[in-house]
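Deviation from plan, reported transparently: nicotinamide-adenine-dinucleotide complex.
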Amino acid sequence: MSLSEEVDSATGVTAGTVDRHATTETFESTAPATGAVVGVFPVHDATAVGETVARARAAAGQWAALGFDGRKQRLAAYRGYLARRMHELADLVHRENGKPHADAILEITLAVDHLAWAAGHARKTLGPRRVAAGMLAANHAAYLEYQPMGVVGVIGPWNYPVFTPMGSIAYALAAGNAVVFKPSEFTPAVGAWLAAAWRAAVPDAADAFQVVTGFGETGAALCRVPVDKLAFTGSAATGRKVMAACAETLTPVLMELGGKDAMIVDDDADVVAAADAAVWGAMSNGGQTCIGIERVYATAPVYDRFVAEVTAQVQRLRPGSDDAATYGPMTMPSQIDVVRRHVSDAAGAGARVVTGGPDTSPGERYVAPTVLLDVPESSAAVREETFGPTLTITKVRDAEEALERANDTTYGLAGAVFSKSRDRAMDLARRMRSGMTSVNSVLTFASVPALPFGGVGDSGFGRIHGEDGLKEFTRSKAITRQRVPLPVNLMSFGRPAGAADALARVMGMVHGRHR
Ligand code: NAD
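Because the crystal trials were delayed, the predicted structure below was used instead.
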């Protein structure tokens, strides 16, 4: 029986993963494309969450004691398991989230790549090393190492139900922590599948990665348990609640929140490539991408060609749930209203709708890909995260004005710059107020495991992926070891009179000559 079939069967709960907890309330996960029930899952209450975290805590010591090599071996078994069952997991993602199967494969590929990188680089990034001891401690050896925190709680969204949480889960596990994951209430089957896969692939450390299911209250319980760190990915509004709950127990948090990412198209850009990237960045996954492109600022010389190319490409997109579809239904029904409101408000404020629009839905759960021109900068379509298949395109004088407008947002997750001039593009990328920027492509930084992922401002703080992502789930530990005792110990009440004067003279000789 496949893991999906196990998840589907009876209660929809995979044996031995999320059904061991004492709770009677359940909820259904349904396929956005068809309304069919994907699975039935427990609503884990505070007691059940507490029990799960206690089991994770009991497993955490053993998991940490496996060391870098032992964990690397088990994380390899896990990623091998995911890679062998890629189509099965992609099918579940397709059914529960609605995205095309091929896009689900892409998402799982990224997750597997991150698992490999995190496990492969943990020792080098986190392992013990000697550092320079400095002047006063010259007779000591100084050591730095990054120790696991214990149990990391991961709360995830529904839009990339494998890739997004894995950015925390893989790095937290590789760093030696146990993990308790609360998937979105819109994608619990994918979360349960990931935990079932872990138990199957890593039976000797099964409790090092567990899942609890439910709504916001289950997530809130995970914040209050407490855990040793809470990695949250979701909206800024929920992020604030998570921080408030974690403040009660002084639990450190990682915040991966929303965005309003912009693309700058400069005079010398490859317009066709920029349009292709903008359409993918804005419309793939039905626009439900935190690092999706929602705004484009194109300079006057390229604006008309860019708009024509984007419009032509968008009109070729095909909604649906079959293999030929380029985008699927909106996963979360309430998001449809947000997208329609943004488009209607913009149109009401004078924006031109060149394709799509609020009244052109290809189906009850679908939003037509919509391109808006001349949108007032004060409107919701420019200021708020839309999280749907929409794109605003604004004509600007030059790249400097584009950058100014791109940076005029409370968010700061990611963005893109299109220009054939390497120096200009890199300069714009550096000055873009965002955690990540792609030059002459979109979203690429997310597929480079060595690069940190995270935002600024309302897009959150802390970093997943790369060395920063490994360190995020550790506590740095400083140790000094005296190698040889010195005849004069300055950090002792027994130090000779005049020792401080001698030290001041030495400091003057060594550092005093610098002006
Ligand atoms: P959401 O904030 O509604 O929910 C996220 C998770 O938080 C869910 O699992 C939910 O059950 C849980 N939750 C809700 N209330 C809670 C509470 N009071 N305490 C603890 N947990 C609670 O977000 P969503 O709709 O699932 O996801 C979409 C949002 O996520 C968008 O804003 C998107 O930009 C963002 N996102 C960000 C990233 C990133 O890496 N920066 C990645 C993907 C999505």
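Residues 149 and 474 are 5 Å apart (CA to CA). We consider this an acceptable substitute for the interim report.
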